[in-house]
Amino acid sequence: MPGGMPQHGETRNVKVVIDGVGYDAQLKNQGFDRSKYDGHADMIQIRYSEGSALVKRLCEVFCSTWNYVESIKNLPENINRKFTIRIPEEHQEFLALSTTDLPNVYVADCITTAVKAEVKTEVSTMSELDFETFEPREDKSAGIKQVTRLQKVRQLDRSIGDYLKLLYDYRCQMTGEKVGDEYNTLVVEAHHIIPFTESMNNDTSNIIILSPSYHRIIHKAKPVFDRTNLSFRFPNGLVEKVKIDKHLTNG
Nearest to residue 154, comparing CAs of 173, 137, 171? Predict the structure, then answer.
């Protein structure tokens, strides 16, 4: 891709395309100290000026999130007070940024509450394993990719899974093994603790990193996950605890 994503610490003037319209913005790859946060994935921010055309468009697109935030900010007890607002799941909306074949032009895939509702209907006919292994197809001839709603959600879901794989250095959280290391390749998979096809929840707190074989066992045996003890309880009475945890306890 021409230009690709900004390098660590780099800021670029870019065009962010939403529904075919380009908006001026800055794309910044945060320059945090990698020696202090070893293995942490790069953090990309979209920066824009207050009152810009992009801000207005984002407020329109993500109206569910925006309206919820405004309603909380305007409560009498919150006026003139600085605080963090936690967005409830039913109002959570997401933006997934993709590169294009055009220099410094990026496509913003907006996953709104309406999109999530439509995808929920679409994935209701899929098995959870089918969803987790669904690979969005790309049109290699298109300068700016056009993707379906399901592809948008799966791409975001995969990016979250890729971040967690890096966090765990490609080790299975249940066994601690690094599958494929002896073959100079690394193979782990992201699994939704509560099936995404039921919950539409792709938050990190609902994802665990597993080896392919353990992942298949989970889907076949359908154990119950005990979040208090961080363990899977299988129908035959066997209980297996998570061996490596860097995110579930705080999820």
Answer: 137
